[in-house]
Design a protein that fits this description.
80 residues; three-stranded mixed sheet; alpha+beta; 16% strand; 1 helix
Length: 80
């Protein structure tokens, strides 16, 4: 299931990058649709953009290349 795979990948990002302390984590891990999570933009139900700039994201980002195959924009600017 594509949605389950995308939720798994983005959940790893959340947990490994101190998501508990993000400035805005609206709907993360709460909504059944990852496309409703703050900073996640989807096209045809594919995660296309992750925009988490200036959101207190910290740590090492480890997303495998095939984890979010349609990801085109990944903005983590102004984080530590």
């Amino acid at each position: 299931d594509k949605s389950l795979s995308q939720q798994y990948c983005t959940s790893i990002l959340f947990h490994s990058n101190n998501g508990k302390y993000w400035r805005n984590k609206a709907n993360w891990l709460e909504s059944g649709d990852e496309c409703d999570w703050f900073g996640v933009q989807c096209t045809n139900d594919d995660v296309f953009e992750l925009k988490l700039a200036n959101n207190n994201v910290s740590g090492t980002v480890a997303l495998s290349g095939d984890c979010l195959g349609k990801l085109n924009i990944f903005d983590l600017s102004q984080n530590s």
